[in-house]
Amino acid sequence: MSTRVYGSLARIADFHDSNFEVTPLPNCEWSTGDYVEGEVIGTVTELYRMEDRSGHMVQVEPGDWIVGALGDRAATLEGVGSWRDIGPGGHMHALTSAGIMGRYMSYSMLLADPLSLRYRGHLRRGGNKVCMRDFALQSDTHAFNVPTLLLVGTSMSAGKTTAGRRVCKELDRAGLFVVGAKLTGAGRYRDILSFLKNGARQIFDFVDVGLPSTVVPGEEYRRAIRPLLNLINDLAPDLLVVEAGASPLEPYNGTVLIDELGDNVICTILCASDPYAVVGVEQAYGLRPDLVTGPATQTSAAVELVWKLTGLRGLNLIDPASKEPFREFLMQKLRLAGDRYPLKTA
Predict the structure, then answer these.
(1) Where are the alpha helices (DSSP H) in 119-188?
(2) CA–CA distances in Å: residue 263 to residues 147, 185, 223, 302
(3) How far apart are CA 22 and CA 36, in angstroms?
(4) pLDDT exceeding 90 applies to what percent of the chain?
(5) Cβ count within 10 A of residue 288
(6) Are strands 35-41 and 116-125 parallel, antiparallel or unpaired?
(7) Is residue 140 classed as helix, strand or coil in its secondary structure?
(8) What proportion of the chain, given as a percentage, has pLDDT over 70?
(9) Fewer CB atoms inside 10 A, N or C side of the chain?
(10) Residues in contact with 176: Cβ distance below 8 Å, sequence separation at least 6, in sequence order
(11) CA nearest 171: which of 192, 149, 142, 155?
């Protein structure tokens, strides 16, 4: 008997094994965010693992069934694929361990073969497709004026989640009510879950508003993300820590997000792959961060080069010696005093 594994994109839904049916549909009826099921096929590699609805990694093997959602991915270091590239035979890939279902058309030769699946069908109830948007957060109003610390990167794997964890930990230590959010990227729960484990009181991401990834048209992204910003606004946190997955120039709507956050951004931390990437983001996007971290700050030579090229301060946040300088940076930038947060701008 096959084992059914729910990818973490299904965490917003109410699925259990008796409340849906799986029925194949013609490709012309497919769309982004549809919940689908695939059967694991191919030869097992280290990537034959799925992130379940709790954020735990689960090993899968041929014959298992995986529930995920149709979506797109455009990762600079790993692979590019879309549900639109799934052919008549139904061969597809898990584009992320969270369960974005599509087919890779460009893939890094440095990685093991991706998890391969055969399309079994769409999840349906009462003859209708079950979609992520069916469970999306909704709001009749739109307001957002929460002070925001923004984490952006020069690429994927540039250290944004690591920096976010450190920020949440320090601000929790200072007694702040912090909300953590990952608002662009490709769905994967464990990134934002790590914010919760390090001091954020509540966490959200674009999955909560029905998006498997943010590779969607800009106006569709705006309509989806505004109810979430409104909900966060209603919570009235002291600070929102936002991770923008990938980089602002990639097709994940990073520029749209920054526009939606507007003047509420009071601190920007750039996580860079190398010192020259800092220059690239500055010149290509006009972004002047308050601090640089990530692989671009791994050594004193790298930090010096960041300063020489840009005049920006760099801190290697995985170095224990950076703990106190980083705490002082946050206190100065966010107007903290001592271990509390008594100063808020009007």
Answers:
(1) 160-173
(2) 9, 22, 19, 31
(3) 8
(4) 78
(5) 12
(6) antiparallel
(7) coil
(8) 96
(9) C
(10) 237, 238, 239, 341
(11) 149
Model pLDDT, residue 336: 65
Place of tokens 């469970």: 135
Gap between the Cα atoms of 10 and 1, Å rounded: 22
Closest CA to 101 of 75, 70, 80: 70
Question: Which CATH architecture group holds 148-333?
Answer: 3-Layer(aba) Sandwich (3.40)
Instruction: Specify whether the CB–CB gap between 182 and 245 falls below 8 A.
Output: yes
Average pLDDT for residues 299-308, to the nearest whole number?
94
Average pLDDT, the chain: 92
Tokens of 324: 């106190």
Cα dist. 201→187, 193, 231, 273 in Å? 21, 11, 14, 29
Write out the two tokens for 235.
């919570």
Residue owning tokens 């391969």: 116
* Tokens describing residue 231: 């909900």
Structural domain boundaries of the chain?
Answer: 4-135, 148-333
Q: Answer yes or no: are the C-beta atoms of 210 and 132 closer than 8 Å.
A: yes
Can you give the pLDDT at residue 299? 93
